[in-house]
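Single Protein Entry

Contents — chain, fold
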Amino acid sequence: MRFVPYLLFWAILCLAYPLSAQHCAFDNLVIYMLNIHAKNDTTVIPNLTITILDSLDIPLKEQRTIDGKWQETTVQFGQNPQRTSHVGYIDNNNPARSEKLHFWFAKNYYTLIPDFWLHNHKIKIEDTDGLANGGHFKTKIIKFNKKYFYRLCTGFGDWQNGYSEKLKDFYKPAKIILDTY
């Protein structure tokens, strides 16, 4: 019976401080970044439509919540926004979406945070606005290169806290050059 006060102490201590199971909001998630530009130019081409294709070259679909309702959408890259518009916790009902999350290391690259593994998938890059983005670019289809998948939770720094010298050169985009017509 002498251990009861100790047990009571630890129980009160544990109940007083709720713990979180995740060490960061992006556990087990990766980011894939694309730096897409024209030949002899380093400026990222804006307003491209970048779709994920399956092994049969059919656009990949997924179920996602939009305004609290599950809907089927095509999986696409989004251009890194100027600021984060994601609200609340990241979970199954409010997943991480690259078009709503700003990543300081992603500059204005196109990003994707897949919540599934991309085995034999391809990336289809289309210029759907014609000359409005500075040229009329040819459609290009490439395979995913797994060397450009980067974990968002790292063991040597937390990018969510802002710029870090340790992480500055860690995240590298896949560089893709589009040809014009």
Observations:
- The chain has a mean pLDDT of 80.
- The longest helix spans residues 4-16.
